[in-house]
Amino acid sequence: MEIPVIKNENYKIIIDDLGSRGEGIGKIEGFTVFVEGGIPGDILNILIVKVKKNYAYGKLMEIITPSKNRITPTCKYYKRCGGCQIQHIDYKEQLNIKRKIVLDNLERIGGIKGVSVSETIGMDYPYYYRNKAQFPVKKGKNGIDIGFYSLRSHDIVDIECCEIQHKNNEKVLKIVKDFINKYNISVYDEVCHKGLIRHVLTKTGFTTNDFMVCIIINGKSLPKSEFLVKELKKIDGLKSVILNINTEKTNVILGERCKTIYGNPYITDYIGDIKFEISALSFFQVNPVQTYKLYSKVVEFAEFTGNENVLDIYCGLGSISLFIAKYVKSVFGVEIVEQAIEDAKRNAKLNNIQNAKFKAGKAEEVIPEIYEEGFTADIVILDPPRKGCEKNVIQTVVNMKPKKIVYVSCDPSTLARDLKDFLQCGYRLENVQPVDMFPSTVHVETIVLLTT
């Protein structure tokens, strides 16, 4: 096939789909072209900037006719920051797009035809929803930059505010930057592995208003930290200031050791009526409003009677386990991260939950092991990382013969792959429910019910 586009030439194109990173997709004489910033329904003038054998990349030069779903982003950093890929799309249409992403993956990767996917559960107010933020710190051309990485790079977009993060972060960024400048504190250079302050991490309890600031440092202490604490204490709800020690030459943000320099080593928050203590190292769902909707859907899908023994695989700090404990006979959670299991046990005790047990270890090792020991479950909950479930985990779950499997997924492609395996083993796909945990991004959470 002769390629119908030439590099550095302009073309008119109609965008009819979105790619996995939120880029527009259109065709020129049947040849696929990706256009960052394009959305379905746009008619664009583009400049071809790269040509491959089967596709090309185009730069948006002019919007000839905008899609009816195109809006003007309110964030002034939108074009430079890599955080929100689809903020230029009307929110209702974002929800439609996420439903389509799930459906397309189930059909294309899972080979599941004719599946019914429910409308995406969205937010009433899809802004300032994140309870956790991580800001890299770097020396820039005009001083200290604290913000987010720009798209597909490690260049930092220096920001003052973010429309999907808690508003307290605006105060934190200013305080930390003023502190660095006033006391001449060095910042980390990832190339030469020198400098002190690497990242700023914040966590917020949306129900309690508790607030934590964690400074990640390439060293053992932070000079003049008492002056930083003094300023941070002016922020409403501040309960904790932590130093996290990370002296490794790595892209991993957090080190293993923390030092509390003000307040408590944790903050508290609730999901429903379950209270959680959240440390700097704890994983906790970043959108508490949608988390409650997601977990309530787990309860709805499972239809607990109070007599079930439940296995929660990839349980994290046990948030689903503890949320459902009052509905079931027992729940057993498995998670690879030992700190998360310690958090789960502590939070079970905090809530006086006695029918939830937890074990640290790799799912692919622990699940076959407990099955060999005679453990079975009436209902299995799966909430794996983005890579999905290991094959032997799927096979062992099938061998247990649970009546229902509730699969919570953060990646539609690996969800589709794993569902294909479960369906081939005789399970039926009953419900597919997307939930928008991350408005203005292409990410979508999905909850699925499988039955025998």
Quick rundown:
The protein has 3 domains: 10-65, Beta Barrel (OB fold (Dihydrolipoamide Acetyltransferase, E2P)); 108-123 and 287-451, 3-Layer(aba) Sandwich (Rossmann fold), CATH 3.40.50; 132-271, OB fold (Dihydrolipoamide Acetyltransferase, E2P) (Beta Barrel). 24% of the residues lie in helices and 31% in strands.
SSE blueprint and pairings:
Blueprint: E1 10-18, E2 24-28, E3 31-35, E4 43-51, E5 55-65, H1 91-108, E6 132-140, E7 143-149, E8 156-158, H2 168-182, E9 197-204, E10 211-217, H3 225-232, E11 238-245, E12 257-263, E13 266-271, E14 274-279, H4 288-302, E15 309-313, H5 319-324, E16 330-335, H6 338-350, E17 356-360, H7 363-372, E18 379-382, H8 391-400, E19 404-409, H9 412-424, E20 428-435, E21 445-451
Parallel strand pairs: 3-5, 10-11, 15-16, 15-18, 16-17, 18-19
Antiparallel strand pairs: 1-2, 1-4, 2-3, 4-5, 6-7, 6-9, 7-8, 9-10, 11-12, 13-14, 19-21, 20-21
Helix pairs in contact: 1-9, 2-3, 7-8
